Amino acid sequence: MSSPDGKVTVVFNGEIYNYRELAKQLTGEGHRFQTTSDTEVLLKLYEARGMACVEELHGMFAFAVHDGRRNSLFLARDRMGKKPLYYCHPTRDSLLFASELKGLAPLCRAAQMDLRVRDQSIYDYLSFGVVPQPNSIYEGVHCLPPGNTAIWEGETLTLQEYWSPSYEPKSELDYNEAQAEVRLRLHEAVRLRLRSDVPLGVLLSGGLDSSIVAYESVQAGVTDLQTFTIATPGGLDESGVASRTAHTLGVENTVLPLEVDPLAGVQAVVHHYDQPFADSSAIPSMQIARLARQHVTVVLNGDGGDEVFAGYRRYAAATLMPTSQRLAHLSAPAAKALSKFASNRRTPFGFAARFASGLGLDGPDRYLAWGSDLLRESDKDWAWQGQGCHPSERLVGAHATAGLSSLDQMVATDVRLNLLSDLLVKMDMATMASSLEARSPFLDQSVAELGWHLPVSYRVKGFSTKRILRDAYREALPDEVVNGSKKGFEVPLAAWLAGPLAEIIHDTLGSPNAKVRAYVSAELIEGLLSSTLLEDRNDKTILYSLLVLELWLTQQGVS
Predict the structure, then answer these.
(1) Do residue 431 and residue 305 come from a single domain?
(2) Predicted confidence (pLDDT) per residue in 111-147, tens digit
């Protein structure tokens, strides 16, 4: 969209949730609007505030403004990084940008820029299962960091941070006051995200976060709310709980049976995600998006609740760690003993085994063990075959902040690594592939800033996670939701690897000509294929990550 005089043009991906309030404010300042769209509000706000416009925006966005008055290009990305923005400058006087790497690639070819695979990105992928931002899988191609703007005026691109997560000082609200404030801010965040000119619904699992979103949608006055629940086979199915919650709230609930073809799914992920992406839950996420899109165009979800209010079990482990540290010398034998009973990482034995294995490690290695539990530097010392690279653990250390509690330190690292490069990418790519828009009230900056500034004991107490969130909604939601344990959204990966994916693994990784063998040793591949190596780790996901990498390298035509 361009200004009436044609001197300012914006291209924009995303949603500005407070656009009505901004339009009213700008109208009072003398601006006139021709449409009711948030794009025009963004354009007028830039004309009125210049690059400071981002400070007033509540939403998920990536946009670029060409300002002919100063011959500049202004780029911006939302605070959390929900919407992607890739860029490169192949020559001193040119800048290329796009929302997806598949959109950037033809521009690079036109500029005669070769897209070369970055060894360091593959090295990091083997530890995190994703390519950590702001880097990409290609040399010279980057993501604009979340909460950043950039200005291009001919030869240099200057980045500037306008927002970043903070965890101190702690709120002085007492516990009851904090509960009321949590509900107030979540209500407002949901209310803003219910603005839509197209059919809208809520992705409702049996968990606390999405149930809160559905509850607050009803409280905001939505009388015809549609909720959608996925029925999954096995012990992780939450459709019964979700259906009962919907009935309690008096809203329509549609149960969507999830039938996943793992082989077609992994191929779709490789195509749509543009980079190696080893989070196997991306496969059912894409299917969920396709099913929901048959009914609505916009969905609200509970993404971010775990990072904002400390919902992962490893956060309880982090708060218990100082007390347990004196037992660190027992961690290795304890982890080995427990792993014999831990066929599933999500069982109590599985959690205990990972907790014990992490106790004896330093901060970065502990983070990897309690999180992805993929390859560490000690593994890569003998398994890596590519060019020399920096330890991936450096990315964990880069987010270390002096003075933070062990809980806040882990949350801060998760927000800038796991949430940014895995969870938000997974949801954005899965939904956009089906033209479905996903909105996340828990990632509203007002909600997040409140959650991160709450005292540790408000969020985690003993083994109880998300304490304040449970107590704030204890009277509003069913007991089975408020007191339920976190199940997570996982696929039966071991069964997939032994069944529907067995043939393609044999044909690709099992081949002596596998492209991935240029990066990792035959010993690693063959040990994983025979299930005799790294059995104390997330070995099935390590094998899956190599499969995804092999398929991606093949798709790219890497020789």
Answers:
(1) yes
(2) 999 999 999 999 999 999 999 999 999 999 999 999 9
